[in-house]
## 1
Amino acid sequence: MNLKRTIELLRQFKKTHPTANKADIEGEFIARCRPKKERSVFVGEGFALRFCEANTLSFSNVVLSLSALQKYDSLPVVICIVRPDRLDFRLANATFLRRISHSSHKLRIDNIRGSFLGHDIMEQYEGVANLPEHFDEIFAIHSEFTWEDNVERLVEATNAIVARSTRFEVPGDVLKRLLEAPARAAAALTTVAFQEAERQLSSRIKEHRDELLRAAILDNVNIRGNTIEQIITGEGNAHRLDDLVFDLAAGGQLIIDIKTKLLDRASAPKAYNIDKMLCLLAQPGNVFSLFFIGLDGAHQSVHTRLVSIFDPIILNATRIQTHWAGRGSRGVTQLTGDLGHIFAPDYCPTVDIEAGQALLRLFVER
């Protein structure tokens, strides 16, 4: 039984058995779903479930250790909060934790310690309520971040340590070059280098079509992304913005970051680290673009498109994840919404210079 049906089942059971407590709800779940139990966590059909009880409005119980969460974090980790009059459900994957609260004074990136409490789970993420009707949407966002990304953030939030300085400083002369970046991107669209880069990359995708479609069915988003990057570049994963670089005739470089979009399921690709992107565009002549690979496993099709980060569709989909803006960083961006239009055969990439400059100013002022 999948997660959606499981939640409906448990809610209906509570409705017909108003006095049911945690043990009763848990018993019904075991009887109807036959899950695998690993200590306090039940593993169902593509999700992990932990039952907790709260008899007041607050929810301050110890929920789970961080080390236990690590084992299931690639699945939706759902907390069922059994209250006297209802059941509440929250996603408790690492992305949706504010900090680690319990016995966590020794928590470090290389020392996973401590547990999180109920009130450490976010009620909403970037304005989206942490409720079952939004689980698919916010889990797709979570899937784009690694466990290491989250642990680093949680260490900083929990221990109030001084973050590594990753903020790119932007004096006046640098700001001028940055604001010229959208115009450079627009000019690059018609260059031989841009067209040749798209031709080479698209040709490489055709050669490895079957491998890419096999990689698309991998559940773990990080393994999937790494596998696809290795297929395309023929190298190990650099995890940098500049997956591929082409020289431009007018000077500077065309910097290309590879992004995968699953067309037959929800996905919200992580776009770029804002400070790293600003650093690249501050160099004279540089142009930063995204090479999208649209994988449709249901129809066994692969689509590609090379676009600027200042393309109107990309600009409209770009969201700043303030959740990831640590003390020394402006944060990261993520692409949400429908990107399918860029794969249309008649789509012609463009650049919105004015909107691109507005976005750059917004980044600099953060």
Note: The first strand starts at residue 36 and ends at 38.
## 2
Amino acid sequence: MTRTPRVAVIGGGIGGLAAARALTRRGIEVHVYEAAPELREIGAGVALGPNAMKALRALGLEDAVRAVAGRTRRQLLRSWRSGRVISAVERDQQAQRFGAAAANVHRADLLDVLAAAVPSGAVTLGARCAAVATDAGVARARFVDGSEIEADVVVGADGIHSAVRASLFGPDAPRFTGKICYRSVIAVDAVPGQPPEPDDAVWLGPRGTIVVYRVRRDELVNVVCHHDDEDYVHESWIARCERDEVLERYRGWNEALGRLFRGGELWYKWALYDRDPIPRWTAGRATLLGDAAHPMLPYLGQGAGQTIEDGCVLAAALAASAGDAGAGLERYERARRPRASAVVLAARERGVSNHLSSPLAALRRDLLIALRRRRRADPEGRGAAWIADYDAGAPEALIT
């Protein structure tokens, strides 16, 4: 009789909890170790494309996530100054083409849904991992308080500055992209004048992109503003900045954006760093997942989606490997690493395309978008339909 592996997941964020949910549904024993004293997420939105929603469907959580998501029915691509609509995608159109419509949620709301879906007692808080080692068919995680645990599999879901990745493969070498982001979550009622437009939108302009979408049943507007800036190099999501800086940075953009920005009380600023795809995720009985494995730039809105996909496929691979955890991890990496690496590189390319400073180059981009949309296979027209087509819950996700 084969024994299902015991899995320890390091990190209780979106990726760690999604993996725990997926593993539990496959009958695999799992425990999550989270460094923070409570399960929490930063106050920001997260985009969930059709592929992410299909992965959540496989976890039995699609309806729960949609219940706390934004309600908008269209996703627009707009020109920075005039507001001209470059493309418009209906959520129903996405559902028909890809099998699910996208959704946008507050990160804290998504984490709440995931946390409620894992078994009681399956999460240990205040457990900060210092290192992971693997030998003789087991993996061990050591924590900063000196304690240690052993499992058949250890999964590093501990984010972009992963201690698990560093202990398995050494420190990474992030590259500053010369791009920065501002973010705020703005109450709809706080926006002066008429209410902000009801549609989600990505505004493309010279050396910048602004992403605007509703979350929490349309009560809040999540705003992320990208801009080229070689001088600011601080990679922190919690460094505050003044609203006036944001207003000045985007002076000359459409006035509807300025009015929206004035409703934001708290603004944050961080520098974007890029990391090349790594050649391995797995060492012995330890592997990586989510940002620990494949941190990516935010231009495709795929960070959370790829993380949730990882959890679904990891659980399927371990369940399909007849108790051979090592073979299951090999199968997981074979199935996931090429796709996630391709998304990393595509997000890098999208950042270049979004920030074109030449009006002629921007016009060529917009015409190409219109051409792709006529083919109907790519509703957005940006060449990324292959990402949304994927279904992490389908048997084909394990075929390599």
Note: Residues 325-354 form the longest helix (30 residues).
## 3
Amino acid sequence: MTVSETSQPIELLLSVSRDESGTLGAQIENQLRSAIREGVLRSSARVPSTRDLARQLGVSRRVVVDAYAQLAAEGYLSLRQGARPRVSDTAAVASAGPETARPAATPRFDFRPSVPDVSMFPRAAWLRCLREALATITDADLAYGDPRGVDVLRSALADYLGRARGVVADPVTVVVTCGYSQGLGIVCHALAAGGAKRIALEAPTWPEQAMIAERAGLEAVPVRVDDAGIRVDELERSKADAVVLTPAHQHPTGVVLSGERRMQLLAWLRDRDAVAIEDDYDAEYRYDRAAVGALQGLEPDRVVYAGSASKTLAPALRIGWLVVPPGLLDAVSREKLLADRGTGRIEQLALADFVSRGELDRHLRRMRARYRGRRDALVEALAEALPEAVVRGIAAGLHAIVELPEAYDVRAIRDEARRRRIALETTLDFWPQDGDGRATLMLGYAQTPEPTIRAGIRELAEAVRAAAGRSQDPAGGATPT
């Protein structure tokens, strides 16, 4: 694309370096793209000509011409013969969203739950496995292949899940997915196609599950959880055709499905001819004893086992897996085919090698010790700074449930914590109907070093005191809701 140059050069604050990763053109593209997205360069703003920018940066003009052409193709720049390059109106409209879409300030103390310490991702080991996958991948595996996944990963997962979680898995029944959410959606679509109408969800649970189920055409029915897990008596009254549950470590309450409830649940599955979807999201992280075995091992013909690498390695991998009862396998395989024709095959081969080499086991051993130390630091800090708080649930996972006395206003605490840039969640984020109960906080500890945990809990205690003081002071106005 030819661009006519004009006089009156425009200066633009960009820089490139031959020592940086990425080509010079890619550096120009990334910086301009970010400036337009973030509103630094607004609608119709003029940008330097290719000749001027090449002079400013000390690069070949061809590098800038190619970068501008790419940005024009993506809709960020408007290039017309005889006119100065400008930011396109389309790009400006796309970047101008509500204020809530702007990136939030970085938290001073990050207690968000369910996020692993991604800084500990075993990059060197993963890179070795990825290189091996690229070096050995066959031409056939570079094509679409079986949408259920590559055979070597399905075999590796069947072996690992059998010995580590007690799952009854044949490689044929394993379906590789792009994370747990996709797996749940695929199963929900398969159930709906088979005539299911209603699916029970634990209450509380993460809200996206209801949206996924409803998008598949199922009615989502909440069933309460108590200290022994899901209430099977309420499940029986729900008339559900399926249920989604987290028996090893309920999310978010942290309880374990008791042995008695397990037997009741299995009886309900048989009597109702129903299906359970077992989300085994962080069962590898149990700190006080060995983890409870998977529910699927007791009833493999009626339980879909679901797991992912998001909590054990990193969410960015976007790899999950299902172990599917034979009666559902064809329907689930068809839904996976329609969803995306299959998860990335190079990454699947790398994960298969990673598991087979024992790298996953080594990583989990390292992370259990690290997370246990951080959880202990959290509990000790709470006992010192906020002694009225009670830690509920088992010693497991990536977050702790912290219950405060009924007099405390959880909304006021949440608002005060945000004002102090303390990132956390409460059970209201998972079950808004429970707004009149105890103030219950969800404090993640996985991505925060122990010294920072102690400092953060001291700051959180001050936030709790400040929120309580305002709610009890008539002059302080109404507590935010």
Note: The longest strand covers residues 219-226.
